[in-house]
Amino acid sequence: MLPRRSIIPEEFAFSPALLSPIHRRPVFRDRVNKARFIAKSGACNLSHKNIREQGRFLQDVVTTLVDLKWRFTLVIFSMTFLCSWLLFGMFWWLVAFAHGDLDPNRKIGVEQCVTNVNSFTSAFLFSIEVQVTIGFGGRMITEQCPTAIMLLILQNIIGLIINAVMLGCIFMKTAQSHRRAETLIFSRHAVIAVRNNRLCLMIRVGDLRKSMIINAVVHLQVVRKTTTPEGEVIPIHQIDVQTESAVASNSIFLLAPLIICHVIDKDSPLYDLSAMELQCNDLEVIVILEGVVETTGISTQARTSYVTEEILWGHRFVSIVNEEEGVYSVDYSKFGNTVKVATPRCSARELDEKPSILIQTLQKSELSQQNSLRKRNSMRRNNSMRKSNSMRCNNSTLAVPKVQFFTPEGGPNLAVT
C-alpha cells in the first residue's frame, strides 16, 4: 500500500502551521448596530402593534383599499362585483317568484316581469346584463311590474357607485406617487470633506428621467436617541438640518445630479463630532426629496437614510457631468464614486477654535502629493534608462562581426562570434 505522502503532492497538502489555531486580536465595537428608521429604498422601518381601534380604517375605505397589497385589492375588486351580481340576481328571482313567472302552470296571456327568467341562473345572468349594460336581447323588463322597474333603477345607481369606487381605487393604486420616486436616486454613501474652508456633509441626488420634478425641495434630518436633563428618554429625536440653499427654502433645480451640502456649523448636530466619535455615535441622517411630477402634476416623495457606517470622512464625490460636442452628458456609472481628499479628523468645533489645523492638513497633503509625484518621475526615469540600456546592449550584440580562423594544416574551421 502506497504511503499517503506519495498520493497527495506536498504543494497541495496542508502544513501544520495552517492546521494550528490562529490567534487573532479581538475587535471591539463601541456600539451595537441598531435597526434604521428609513431603509435605503425609502420604506419606513416601523411596525404598529396593539391597535385597539381597528374600525378607524373602515371609515376611510378608499385609502385602506389603496394601501392594501395588489393581491388583496384584486380579490376585493372581484368579490365586490360578484357579490353585487348575486345579490341583485336573488332580488330578480324573488320578483319573478312573487309575480308567478316561475310557475310552469301560469295562465296564458299574462306577461312576465322579466321575459325568459325561469330560474335563478337566468335571473343571475339578467343581473349581470343590467349592471354592466350588456343587452343580449333574450331577457327584458316589461311594463307590467312596477317593482321590477324600481329594482332596475336601484341596481343601475348602485352599480355606477361600485364602478366609480373600484376603478378609482385601481387608478390611484397604479398612479401612486412613490412609483415616480423609483427613478430618483441617492448616492449610496454620504461624505464629509472641506468645502470653502468649512467641514460639510454632502449627498448626491439625481433623476433618471428627462421629465423634471417641479419645485423640488430637499429636507435633511438627524435622528438620534437622546435623554433630556429630566431623565426622559426620547428614542426618535428628530433634528432639522439646514442645507446650503436654506435662503431659497431648500428649492433645487434637479436638471442634472446635484450635491446637497450641509455646512457643519454651530447649529449643526454634527458640530462636536470628530471622525472617530462619528463612527461610535448612534445617529441616522434622513434625506427627503419632495416635488411635483411635471407630466402628471402629482406630488411625489423620495426618501433614504445614512447611518454612521455609510458616512465617509475625508471623501469627495467625483465629477460625472462633462461637455461633449455642445451637449452636457452625465455618466451614471460614477454616480456614487468618491475619492479621498485631505480632511482634518477633528470636529468642526476644534477646527473653528484652531484654524491652523486645516492649514497644516493641507500643507501635509501638498507635501505628500509632491513626494508621490517625485517618486513617480524617478521611477519613470529609471524605467526609461533601463530600456535605453537594454536597447544599447542589444544593438552592441548585433553589431559584433563573425570572425573565422583557418588552421595551416587545412583542418576544420573554428568560427568565433
From TrEMBL:
Keywords: Ion channel, Ion transport, Membrane, Phosphoprotein, Potassium, Potassium transport, Transmembrane, Transmembrane helix, Transport, Voltage-gated channel. It comes from the Eukaryota. SUPFAM superfamilies: E set domains, Voltage-gated potassium channels. GO terms for molecular function: ATP-activated inward rectifier potassium channel activity. GO terms for cellular component: monoatomic ion channel complex; plasma membrane. Residues 380-391 have a biased composition (Low complexity). It is a multi-pass membrane protein. Residues 367-391 are annotated as: Disordered. Residues 38-176 form the Potassium channel inwardly rectifying transmembrane domain. It is found in: Membrane. It catalyses: K(+)(in) = K(+)(out). Residues 184-354 form the Inward rectifier potassium channel C-terminal domain. It holds the Pfam family IRK. The chain crosses the membrane at residues 74-95, 148-171. The keyword Signal does not apply. The keyword Phosphoprotein applies. InterPro entries: Ig_E-set, IRK_C, K_chnl_inward-rec_Kir, K_chnl_inward-rec_Kir6.1, K_chnl_inward-rec_Kir_cyto, Kir_TM. GO terms for biological process: nervous system development; potassium ion import across plasma membrane; regulation of monoatomic ion transmembrane transport. The record marks N163 as: Role in the control of polyamine-mediated channel gating and in the blocking by intracellular magnesium. Belongs to the inward rectifier-type potassium channel (TC 1.A.2.1) family. This is ATP-sensitive inward rectifier potassium channel 8-like. It comes from Carassius auratus (Goldfish). The gene is LOC113047827.
